[in-house]
Amino acid sequence: MSDINKVVLAYSGGLDTSIILKWLQDVYDCEVVTFTADLGQGEEIEPARTKAQAMGIKEIFIEDLREEFARDYVFPMFRANTIYEGEYLLGTSIARPLIAKRLIDIANETGAQAISHGATGKGNDQVRFELGAYALRPDIQIIAPWREWDLTSRQSLLDYAEKHGIPVEMKHGKTSPYSMDANLLHISYEGRVLEDPWAEPEEAMWRWSVSPENAPDKATYIELTYAQGDIVAIDDVPCSPATVMEQLNKIAGANGIGRLDIVENRYVGMKSRGCYETPAGTVMLKAHRAIESLTLDREVAHLKDELMPRYASLIYNGYWWSPEREMLQTMINASQANVNGKVRLKLYKGNVVVVGRESATDSLFDESIATFEDDAGAYNQKDAAGFIKLNALRMRIAAAKRLK
Hints:
- By secondary structure, the protein is α/β, with parallel strands linked by helices.
- The protein is 40% helix and 19% strand.
- It has twelve helices and 14 strands.
- The chain has helices at residues 15-28, 47-54, 66-78, 96-110, 125-136, 154-164, 241-254, 279-295, 298-316, 323-335, 367-370, 383-403, and strands at 6-10, 31-38, 60-64, 114-116, 141-143, 179-182, 187-190, 220-227, 230-234, 237-238, 259-265, 271-277, 341-348, 351-358.
- The strands form three sheets. The protein has a five-stranded parallel beta sheet with strand order 3-2-1-4-5, with helices on both faces. A five-stranded antiparallel beta sheet has the order 10-9-8-13-14, covered by helices on one side. Strands 6-7-12-11 form a four-stranded antiparallel beta sheet, with no helix packed on it.
- The longest helix has 21 residues, at 383-403.
- It is elongated.
- The N and C termini lie far apart (79 Å).
């Protein structure tokens, strides 16, 4: 511990990191630098400054990273139609590489020897933070209090906070609050009743979406404009990446879209039950696949679908800064050159329905060939006979041997 004089702490001002700040001061007897990021969690982050100052912190970094997060992390991920284990849109996972990057940047700027985070020893985030940090600065030292201290439950954290006079928001008597993480892409919920996979989530838990039952009885229609695989306008109004997500979260959430309740496989080996609200992401995935269906070559689209689960696992498991993720990203980005056009969607009571797609410059849909009406010789249907026979040749040979 003696070689660590300064540490940069990923600091939210919430329960875990407020306790960690005090613990680092007492156990490591070092100077603490706090870093608080606005990733679109929808809550004020400036109170973190007041809390840090009250605990004697001199170097406080509070940064608005919403545009960088959306532009350089979320949008590139959605170009791949990324989804983990068939359902999870990776809202927590994709935020970690940016936080890791800024922790290292600030450590370099302030001369800190170490970084610290509030991820537990049971979860994925410890892996994501630390893999990213080591990839960007191999000599960095990492302090993970959950792997060192004897505070083994959220209730023990609440007791520690009370003992040391650390204020805790959302405290419900002696009951721990949900473990939550929020950013532009989602809110995640874990703990409390959710630790029982059979228990239905409490309606009061959800924050960004109405229940489908209480959503409007009239559908909402929106049009999304794409340029090289990214949304650049909503209803013909140009939007930055962060604005796209902010607007879609409001529109989709008001229509009961984006709720998810899953049991997922963590990288460390255990199963975990969590609930997620991802209104914008749910719409973005559906719409992106729709514009790609019109503009991507068949084999390119199928190859992307084959590689996507590997790409999703890399992000989920914390390998954003790995050479293999960067290699896949180069291929994915190249595939989006002609993914341009518009998608029209109908949002209704939890459902996202594609009702139109068009691309004036890059559509591969040829009505003269695809039509069920007279195609004026654009397609010779007799050609299909030889195509089918050639593709059936190996099966015909095998069947002939069996019949003999």
